[in-house]
Amino acid sequence: MRKNSREKIVNAAVALFNANGYDGTSIRDIAKKAEINAANISYYFRNKQGLLEYCLTRFFEGYMAELESAYTSLDKGATQCLREIAGKLWSYQCNQIHLTRFVLREMSIDTQIVREILTTYYAKERFIFHTVVEKGIEAKEFHPVSIQYILIQFKGLLSVPFLNTQYLTEVLHVFPHERYFADKYLQEINRWIDGIVCTPLNQRNAC
After folding, report:
1. How confident is the model over 135-159, as pLDDT tens digits?
2. I want to staple 78 with a disulfide (CB 3.0 to 4.6 A). Which of 71, 136, 171, 187 is the partner?
3. How many domains does the chain have?
């Protein structure tokens, strides 16, 4: 029962944060939407800041677990590993689209908690990505690319659909919450990996 109450609070908070913004959402709003007593929020999270920290930590703990799982495939080659990373991170974000939208938007704001995440989770992400791309370049699987710029492009591909859902649905008429879109978009990410990052097989063989 306690776990269910906590989940109801988190789900209600994420929905309201997405609709009204973090600052535009009150504890009372969250309690009303979750259909629980406001005291329960204090019991589980202390206050709204504690709830925010929980949402961010929960997202990035799962995100890093998927990233680290994909990283173990590096011995199969850098290309395969990068595809694994793309697939696992994309699937993770799609499976919790509302939390992803909120977290990615929140990460664009310069706050203390965002800076802490940048120096913990994102620093580890950068190390993993840097290692994968370096191995790909050394093995002639990848072009001699700028790792920083490739990471910018890669993260952009993974985040844009969640940061621009109104544009996607109202202008482009594609729907990020649909399975068809998720599958099709992952194909395009892999096409980018093959076309931009990877060295064609005939060039690898000539090296």
Report:
1. 999 999 999 989 999 999 999 999 9
2. 136
3. 2
198: which strand partners?
A: 142
Of 123, 195, 207, which Cα lies nearest the Cα of 157?
A: 195
* CA dihedral over 85, 186, 14, 21, signed as positive or negative: positive
198 and 102: one domain?
A: yes
Structure tokens at 47: 């206050």
Contact yes or no for 90/158 (Cβ under 8 A):
yes
**Rounded to an integer, what distance in angstroms lies between the CA atom of residue 136 and that of residue 130?**
10
- When pLDDT is averaged across residues 160-170 and rounded to a whole number, the result is 93
Residues 119 and 23 in one domain: no
At 121, phi and psi to the nearest 5? Answer: -65, -50
Burial class of residue 93 (count of CB atoms within 10 Å of its CB; 0-12, 13-18, 19+): buried
Range of the domain at 58: 53-206
CATH number at residue 141: 1.10.357.10
